[in-house]
């Protein structure tokens, strides 16, 4: 029965059987589970290997640095299950690696030359090593603080996907000319709006997402390059007094925009919800007025005291886009 299912559905079923990310033993658990499934059901091997495309957890941290020998064994074990070289890595690193950790990072370069994607948790000092990974195109950064003008020397010309989660100073990086996807999560909006120019920093971006603790000012959104096709904005993530919306500035949508996603969050302690709803109405109406733009809305985590705004939003966008809550 399982053999007759589409390959994508097989992979989806397997996903529920494999432990989710978390803890330094995640890679071993995932490798063991995938290997066991392949042994029990030989026809699952392909799906198990596809599932292993997810990042491999390598706990290289100052709180329990692994030896180069242990790291080498882990890489070898993963490659045996995958049937190919490791292409994704999860690195949990200190800001200033000790000599032992530096040697382990150098080992990664030699043992994982095919790496295309990396997840880095607290490891700003590891960029010099990552720049030696000649095929790295996707980078996920978590909890890193950047200095103004920091650059991704060595990988800037080939980096296509970049995401920031709880990072500081990410809006002041050196330009990345070939980046096509840019994601911000749990990042604070800039205090000095005049310092932000996305078109200058990321001139080739096609997909832009801002889903953070504070909303991105309209004047900053307006600096996105004309190449943007998909735009996702978290509109309400804090009470209005902490947001930096410049409601008097009209939203200028990129010329090539095809899809606008607005994520709205209502809070009972927000005294200015009406202003937020008006901002959403303005942005959504502009998308509807622009031919060929698909509008989608998500209302998230509505509290009972703020739910009375839902009918207003639902009526406004009925037939124009999707509304989930």
Keywords:
11 strands; about 15% strand; eleven-stranded parallel beta sheet; about 325 residues; 10 helices; 2 domains; alpha/beta; elongated
How is this structure best described in words?
The chain folds into 2 domains: about 1-55, no CATH class; about 55-325. It contains 10 helices and 11 strands. The two termini are about 35 Å apart. It has helices at about 5-15, 25-40, 45-50, 70-80, 100-110, 125-130, 200, 220, 275-290, 310-315, and strands spanning about 55-60, 90, 115-120, 140, 160-165, 180-185, 205-210, 230-235, 260-265, 295-300, 320-325. Helices cover about 30% and strands about 15% of the residues. The chain is α/β, with parallel strands linked by helices and about 325 residues long. It has an 11-stranded parallel beta sheet with strand order 1-2-3-4-5-6-7-8-9-10-11, covered by helices on one side. It comes from Rhodotorula paludigena. This is F-box domain-containing protein.
The unreliable regions are 15-45, 47-64, 237-244, 319-325
Shape: elongated
Describe the main β-sheet briefly. 11 strands, parallel
Please report the number of helical segments.
Answer: 10
Number of domains: 2
Q: How large, in whole angstroms, is the Cα Rg?
A: 22 Å
How far apart lie the N and C ends?
A: 36 Å
Sheet with the most strands: spatial strand order: 1-2-3-4-5-6-7-8-9-10-11
* Share of β-strand residues: 15-25%
User: How much helix is in the residues?
Assistant: 25-40%
The counted number of beta strands is: 11
Helix/strand class: alpha/beta
SSE arrangement, N to C:
HHHEHEHEHEEEHEHEEHEHE
* Mean pLDDT figure: 67
Protein name: F-box domain-containing protein
Organism: Rhodotorula paludigena
């Amino acid at each position: 029965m399982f053999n007759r299912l589409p390959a994508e559905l097989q992979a989806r079923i397997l996903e529920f059987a494999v432990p989710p990310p978390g803890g330094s033993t995640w890679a071993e658990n995932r490798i063991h589970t995938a290997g066991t499934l392949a042994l029990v059901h030989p026809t699952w091997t392909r799906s198990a290997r596809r599932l292993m495309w997810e990042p491999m957890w390598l706990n290289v941290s100052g709180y329990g640095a692994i030896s180069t020998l242990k790291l080498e064994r882990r890489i070898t074990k993963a490659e045996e299950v995958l049937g190919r070289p490791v292409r994704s890595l999860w690195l949990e690193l200190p800001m200033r690696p000790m000599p032992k950790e530096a040697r382990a990072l150098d080992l990664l370069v030699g043992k994982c030359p095919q790496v295309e994607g990396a997840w880095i948790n607290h490891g700003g000092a590891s960029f010099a090593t990552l720049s030696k990974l000649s095929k790295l195109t996707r980078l996920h950064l978590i909890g890193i603080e950047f200095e103004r003008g920091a650059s991704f020397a060595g990988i800037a010309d080939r980096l296509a996907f970049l995401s920031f989660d709880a990072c500081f100073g990410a809006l002041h990086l050196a330009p990345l000319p070939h980046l096509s996807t840019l994601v911000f999560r749990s990042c604070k909006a800039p205090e000095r709006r005049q310092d932000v120019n996305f078109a200058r920093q990321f001139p080739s971006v096609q997909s832009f997402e801002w889903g953070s603790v504070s909303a991105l000012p309209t004047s900053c959104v307006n600096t996105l390059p004309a190449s943007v096709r998909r735009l996702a904005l978290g509109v309400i993530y804090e009470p209005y007094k902490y947001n930096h919306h410049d409601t008097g500035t009209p939203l200028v949508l990129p010329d090539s925009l095809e899809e606008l996603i607005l994520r709205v969050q209502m809070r009972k302690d927000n005294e200015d919800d009406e202003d937020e709803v008006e901002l959403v109405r303005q942005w959504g109406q502009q998308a509807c007025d622009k031919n060929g733009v698909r509008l989608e809305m998500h209302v998230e985590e509505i509290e009972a005291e703020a739910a009375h705004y839902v009918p207003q939003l639902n009526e406004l966008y009925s037939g124009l886009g999707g509304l989930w809550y």
